[in-house]
């Protein structure tokens, strides 16, 4: 027999409450009023449904679902698609004074308390995977290495990954599979022809990589990722749940609206 009190909400209502909470940032108190239940009932519902959505993975097509970075790399390689990676930060509440590792959540870039996730998109900006959250003090390149990106690119089918300057150094470790902006050969007194060539190469790389920024922007449209006011330990499930829901929406949007 199952332990715990019987649910006051059917599963469809629990799913709907979780979806509204993630998409619009509606508080548990407001949702409790809408559904006519106690706040604790909504908290329990969100706490149960959110991990299920996170485990569901991202939808690349109606018959392909991706749940890990290894599956994403395999899928990109088998389909001959170029991937794009970047890190995104999500503001969170400041840890309590005196808490161990409190400073780990301070972003060196934005000087705010945040967590960081590595986002992978395809060349069209669709999101097939987001990593679990890490404290924002972790560098982008360090997070990529800890997630096993280098080993996956070396061992898996050939696939190119576009990245920004934060990932410079991974190209040499992966045999050139991670493509970053070109290094400057002249730090000062560069000839005019070199400045023009370097700027042209930099803009060409940026124009190809911009799709990941669009993918991150779509993720941040979900209020749960604009700024998180809940528990930090729930952030990994929240990020991956939103990524899965967004990928499903993007896949549905690709279907033709009418047949010719």
Please provide a brief summary of the model.
This protein is of the alpha/beta class and 260 residues long. It has helices spanning 11-24, 28-35, 39-56, 69-79, 140-146, 149-155, 170-173, 192-220, 223-226, 235-253, and strands at 58-61, 64-66, 83-91, 114-121, 129-130, 134-135, 161-162, 178-179.
Description:
The protein has helices spanning 11-24, 28-35, 39-56, 69-79, 140-146, 149-155, 170-173, 192-220, 223-226, 235-253, and strands at residues 58-61, 64-66, 83-91, 114-121, 129-130, 134-135, 161-162, 178-179. With 260 residues, the chain is an alpha/beta fold. Strands 3, 4, 5, 6, 7 and 8 form a 6-stranded mixed β-sheet that branches. A hairpin with a 2-residue loop joins strand 1 (58-61) and strand 2. It is globular and about 70 Å long. The model has no long low-confidence stretch (mean pLDDT 89).
